[in-house]
Amino acid sequence: MPRLMIAHPSADQYGSDLQLLETVVAARAAGWSVLVVVPEDGPLVPMLAKAGAHVVVQRFPVLRRSTMSARGLVGYALSGLRAIVAGARSLRRAKPDVLLVNTVVVPTWLVSARLARVPVVSHVHEAEESSGRTARRLLASPLLLATQVIANSRATARTLTDVVPSLGRRTTVVHNGVPDRGPEPTDPRIRRPQDPAVVAIVGRLSPHKGIDVALEAVAHLRREGRDVRLEVAGSAFRGYEWYVAELEQRADEPDLRGAVTFHGYVDPARKVIDKADVVVAPSWRESFGNAAVETLLACRPLVAAATQGLVEVVDDGRTGLLVAAGDAPGFARAVAKLLDDPEQATRMARAGRADALDRFSTRRYAAQMLAVLGTASGRNTTQRRGRAAGARQAVGTVELSEHANPRAADRPRVHVAVPTFRRNELLEPLLGMLAPHVLGSPSLADRTEILIIDNDPDGGARDVVAAVAAEADLPVRYVHEPRPGIAAVRARAVEEASADGLVVFIDDDGLPGESWLGPLVETWERTGAEAVAGRIVPGFVDEPSAWSAAGRFFERSNLPTGTLRRSAPSGNLLVDVAGVAALGVAFDPEVGMRGGEDTLFTRGITEAGGRVVACGESVVVDLVPPERDDRRWVVSRVYGHANRSVDVELAFTQGVVARARVRTASVVRGVVVAARGAARWVAAQATRNLATDASAWRDLARGPGLVAGGLGLQHEAYRRS
């Protein structure tokens, strides 16, 4: 039985505490034994015990704001040294396969794990941006001791990599999983605009939660003559009694007197949320927003601050409304808009619940957390190596069977993901071509959505997608991914999909062939493969040049259905989200503009023991405009592919000596290929043979690419001006 030990800084019942509980539930369900260490007793302890964890109360220091002074840091350092020794001793006794350090405020456990030689995963729930860069760097730097880092949102990950960029390679974003508690929710109550209204807020009574902003918004609504009450559910940390006093004093002023109720801590929060007409989440900073997700699950209209993790939870205008943080009049206007338009409020509430069930389920959270913990602990190493040995040979076929994949009966949701960057003119015709493949299949029409992942920093495709979605007969969803690079876009698509769903990639300059989506899904159903790769054929806008036709630069392999592939391109690729999560494989956003993210990802599947299966019946046409049918563009692409192939090989090579061999072999092979290209070029000049000339230029580009890759010189295939 694998053993998990967890160090957690409190025994309370708020966001990170309850998320820890979900981690314990997931680990126990997967057969792990769980030991949780907390510094004090509290209400969380019996909850953890009920979930199957063994809980130990062991004193250790926790970083607080009060610690961030000269005197506080000295005291923390002294107690920290004792805690490091005690922690290492506890780890040696418990002998866990992996230690999970929950939040960044207990860094001593990271040092203890290193001393005890125990793999350690840090789960970061804080997205602190208000402090100076030096303080933030000091807080994030201990994470360099972690084997892997889990961030609860992209906002949290950015706050880490902003001050310690090297953390990016070991950081995985796993959105919180929020349980759907309580009875099946009803729609928001039907009310007339003049009827009394209830606005609710759930969260810690802390300045950064913006409780005061909610009070001012309700005061603004009441000054307009609206009969609005505010229900506040939450209590304060020790030391914030002054803030509670200020809130109570403000609530007792004439414009709010009798209209605000402070309930204290409420469990479950649904008791308050269910009675609300609108729920607000006006936080100044919020790494994720569990209370916001609880609101969506309860099918209640939500108005949230456009900040950090809340932007990832709320799809503005579809599942809720976003308002600038601190803008009390703006919150008042948004609440009034929902109160005055109950039909819109109901539409948003229903869409919010469906979205939350899809993206923030405990099932998805469990699968992703266990994948990271399993990878860090090395529990799957033997199985993976054994299966990977066969995968590296990349030969043979997989049996196609009507009953090979038991998950097929569950009819998982299908997400057709279209990455795009400033090609708005291609989106509308592409979406028109995708629709028949979905709507024309009874088995796909009711479970497929189109995801447009926009990599334009300005979100330039938003209006185009909104216009198309309004007229479309199937769900079309817009997602903005500001991190530059196709790898970040593909990673975001998988994040946006349901935990047990299927993501099907087609690029914005690709066109579905006569047969496309159905065969991909059918091949997955008949094989259970982690990925299915369809055919990609070139589609020249003009007649191809004689030189590129002779060199066949745009042609790709056509493998029969069922063929096992070592790797595959992602322009026509189906990904089983649960399957790759179980292997611990994901697109790496750190690839940035270099390209090759598809080879790295699919090769990662086969190296981890998974399967990438070809589907010859699924076809996507890759448009080749005249500017690409150009010798300079083709040579640059061949150079980039060769250069990136070295990075991919290094990614799956362990040990300094082995990696040095890969680099040396790449340089030698590159020199040989370049020399062959030079000889072919001479022959081509003599014979005037286009095919020989094309082969010569292929070698003359590929050889230097291999040499540069071996020397560590990276090429940015998708560099933007």
UniProtKB/TrEMBL annotation:
- A Pfam family annotated for this UniProt entry: Glycos_transf_2
Q: Which domain of life is it from?
A: Bacteria
Q: Which residues form a coiled coil?
A: none
Q: Which keywords accompany this UniProt record?
A: Glycosyltransferase, Transferase
Question: Ranges for the Glycosyltransferase subfamily 4-like N-terminal domain?
Answer: 20-179
Domain Glycosyl transferase family: where? 190-354
Q: Where is the Glycosyltransferase 2-like domain?
A: 416-556
Question: One GO MF term, please?
Answer: glycosyltransferase activity
Q: Which Gene3D superfamilies match?
A: Glycogen Phosphorylase B, Spore Coat Polysaccharide Biosynthesis Protein SpsA, Chain A
Against InterPro entries, the record matches this protein to: Glyco_trans_1 (IPR001296), Glyco_trans_2-like (IPR001173), Glyco_trans_4-like_N (IPR028098), Nucleotide-diphossugar_trans (IPR029044)
Name this protein carries in UniProt = Glycosyltransferase involved in cell wall biosynthesis
